[in-house]
Write a structure and sequence with these properties.
globular; 14% strand; seven-stranded mixed beta sheet; 2 domains; alpha/beta; Rossmann fold; two-stranded parallel sheet
Length: 325
């Protein structure tokens, strides 16, 4: 990020039962990042603004705390902390559903820690999509929301517009990940070093794609969400234009203006990102993975994969696999 921006706002959802240590710890983490950026002389980086949000009786989310009080809010991400209580009730999930869906539709990244994922799942936004949570709650998440593809082996899963993390104390990892994603790896590394915690690892080739979601074009954002949910399987330009409700030429122009990519290039990035996670965390062979992310021709998949990551799928697995095979 080179252009000077005043602030980059990250919200924290303060729902009944939310772990206070996580709410305030995440706030402190971003304050440390601001201090570290100043000490490093990174004056072109935006200040990280943290706001706390709470659901009011009206059903709207209202700000109850703000590290940089000022007019207006422009959330880039909303973090949903864990809870020391039981899994959230159906009534709590239903109460937050409309507000979370509205933020997601505006391009806000939803990011959860541990059982915070239940609030996202309860909104329906994870239907047909992968997510992770604490191992003790993985079965409960699967049973309550069978359409969510629970990934028990992954500590943190960035799926573009939704990020989920597993451990009860994973708010540190999630906070550093968001700093890396929105501001850069260098600041995330130096913030971890200041806090004397495990530094954020350098992003793997398959995690380098970070989609633009804050562009404000609702029709394009609708297609981006659809591609994430459908894993971009066999999505043609005509399919995407139809989803956007636009004529194909108009859609192509607006999509490129909003995301910086052609629709087919964007879909390839989504597919390859999913393939990378499958190579890292499963024992499926390359052909099965190619078919699973929407390529009928494994040879074509290998070419696209190597072009985007700089290595073959087999080489990627040998270097980065968590589950060998």
């Amino acid at each position: 990020m080179t252009a000077k921006t005043d602030s980059l706002e990250i919200g924290v959802l303060c729902y009944p039962g939310a772990q206070s240590a996580a709410v305030h710890g995440m706030t402190d983490l971003f304050a440390v990042a601001n201090r570290v950026a100043g000490q490093l002389g990174d004056h072109d980086l935006p200040a990280l603004r943290v706001s706390h949000w709470q659901l009011e009786a009206s059903g709207q989310l209202q700000v109850i705390a703000d590290t940089h009080p000022g007019p207006g809010h422009a959330l880039r991400a909303l973090m949903i902390p864990p809870s020391l209580a039981a899994t959230p009730s159906a009534e709590l999930l239903q109460a937050h559903r409309v507000a979370l869906c509205a933020l997601h539709a505006q391009g806000v990244v939803l990011a959860s820690v541990c059982i915070g994922v239940f609030l996202i799942a309860g909104s329906g936004l994870l239907d047909g999509r992968p997510a992770c949570t604490h191992w003790n709650y993985a079965q409960a998440l699967s049973e309550r929301f069978p359409q969510v593809r629970v990934q028990g082996s992954q500590p943190l899963l960035d799926d573009g517009d939704i990020v989920t993390s597993a451990g009860l104390m994973a708010w540190t990892d999630l906070g550093l990940h968001l700093i890396e994603r929105f501001v850069g790896h260098g600041l995330a590394r130096e913030t971890a070093r200041y806090l004397s915690v495990e530094p954020a690892p350098a992003p793997l080739p398959g995690a380098l794609f970070q989609p633009r979601l804050e562009h404000g074009d609702e029709a394009v954002l609708k297609v981006q969400h659809w591609l994430q949910g459908e894993e971009a399987r066999a999505a043609s330009l005509a399919d995407m234009a139809r989803c956007a409700g636009l004529e194909p030429r108009t859609f192509l122009r607006r999509f490129r203006a909003a995301t910086g990519l052609r629709p087919t290039e964007y879909a390839q990035q989504v597919r390859v990102g999913r393939a990378c996670r499958l190579l890292e965390f499963t024992r499926r062979n390359v052909e099965q993975i190619a078919w699973g992310v929407g390529y009928q021709d494994p040879g074509a998949f290998r070419k696209v994969f190597q072009r985007l990551t700089g290595m073959t799928p087999s080489d990627y697995r040998r270097r980065f696999a968590v589950v060998c095979g």
